Amino acid sequence: xxxxxxxxxxxxxxxxxxxxxxxxxxxxxxxxxxxxxxxxxxxxxxxxxxxxxxxxxxxxxxxxxxxxxxxxxxxxxxxxxxxxxxxxxxxxxxxxxxxxxxxxxxxxxxxxxxxxxxxxxxxxxxxxxxxxxxxxxxxxxxxxxxxxxxxxxxxxxxxxxxxxxxxxxxxxxxxxxxxxxxxxxxxxxxxxxxxxxxxxxx
Length: 202
Prior knowledge:
Strand 7 and strand 8 (140-148) form a beta hairpin. By secondary structure, this protein is of the alpha/beta class. It has helices spanning 34-43, 58-62, 82-96, 115-128, 152-156, 165-170, 189-201, and strands at residues 7-13, 28-29, 32-33, 50-54, 71-74, 102-107, 132-137, 140-148, 175-179. It starts with 6 loop residues before the first strand and ends with a helix. 34% of the residues lie in helices and 23% in strands. A seven-stranded mixed sheet has the order 5-4-1-6-8-7-9, sandwiched between helices.
């Protein structure tokens, strides 16, 4: 990568947590809400700036990010699906950092997300020259994922619940993968309970 290479990070946290039954962005992880935990992790990485996309319960959730140097944007059309949140995030990035060479799309419900993961995504991009780098776990390609700027137009074109994962198929020849078996999504109370149990046993 060139010396002036810059990569932003968009943290998607707009969902309604329907399977959780409560805003998962506010679930306690240690002594802080899950979303703040993930946002602080993002800020500790080399990606900059960090943009957080809120949607459902935005007014209630926003305060958990107080005093963090993140750019918060609200997806008023969050019920449309993940594609709408990606559009809002990339649209904000275009205004905030128009010369960015790439973006990492990350999810606000992955408590094991790390700055090391960001570094590995960017290193894989550098080594392979691929314009998309996806995390591979549970047998699937998933976020966190890196997208070079040439894909921003496609990300802005996502509609409905067609999220960034769909581009892994559309541009299959440009995708590199990176093993990420330690990641987990907290979608249900069972997921949350299992995560806490695993952390306690470490």
